[in-house]
Amino acid sequence: MDMRAVDRLLSDTPDTPRADARRNLERLIAAARTALADTGVTVTAGEIARRAGVGKGTFYRRVPSLDTLLHAVLHEILTEITTAAERADTDPDPWRGFTEFATAYVGLRAESCGVNDILTTPAPDLDATVADIRDALHRLVARAQHAGVLRADLTWHDIAFVLAAVPTPPSTLGLTAAPDQWTRTLRIVLDGLRPAPDPAQ
After folding, report:
1. What are the helix (H) ranges across 40-146?
2. CA atoms of 114 and 120, how far apart (whole Å)
3. Where are the domains of the chain?
4. Are the C-beta atoms of residues 47 and 39 closer than 8 Å to each other?
5. Nearest to 29 by CA among 13, 10, 2, 1
6. How far apart are alpha carbons 13 and 178 in whole angstroms?
7. Are 25 and 33 in contact (CB under 8 A)?
8. A GO molecular-function term, please (predicted)?
9. What was the pLDDT predicted at 150?
10. 69: how many CB neighbours lie within 10 A of its CB?
11. Can you give the pLDDT of all 201 residues of the chain as single tens digits?
12. Residue 154, SS3?
């Protein structure tokens, strides 16, 4: 079973941590997640410690290294995507399942530079989780196409690149994107993925 980031980081600790130590670790994880969202995988330990309201000494007492913390947090986020895919796979409506997965997947990409970084160039220790997401997308696309609710002329590779392109830049042509622009863009894209109506009907 996949663990939350805090449990993953504590799994190698021989003793049960004090409540305050666990709270500090949870603060570091929350800070790392927001820092990853804003900055990406180039975020520093000092920036995470500052956001968590702790010193760098506390940072390194709670986690072995910056890489260990970032990978635990990224693994937790990627697991949220695979969980969304599992829910979508069991939805009796293939189109609803596909669109709910697409919304969860694009939403995490739109909100986090770190997720975009790792999905573009997976780290070796996260590659298996990224492969699970890839396999889930393949299944969801095949299921929707088999049901006739997704265009048959597209490959699942096409869908992967289409969904990756949905997250909205902050501005274009001198226009500033609204906070929900990515959801509007996704709705437009999803409409374009539906099969054209049969003119004979």
Report:
1. 45-52, 56-62, 66-90, 94-111, 113-120, 127-146
2. 10
3. 5-68, 74-193
4. yes
5. 10
6. 44
7. no
8. DNA-binding transcription factor activity
9. 97
10. 24
11. 355 766 666 555 555 556 666 787 888 889 988 988 888 888 899 999 999 888 888 888 888 888 888 888 888 888 889 999 999 999 999 999 999 999 999 998 888 888 887 887 777 778 888 899 999 999 999 999 999 999 999 999 999 999 999 988 888 899 898 888 899 999 999 999 999 876 665
12. coil
Nearest to 89 by CA among 45, 133, 127: 133
Say how many residues make up the chain. 201
Positive or negative torsion for Cα 50, 51, 53, 59: negative
Please name the CATH architecture into which domain 5-68 falls.
Orthogonal Bundle (1.10)
Tokens 């997250």, residue? 167
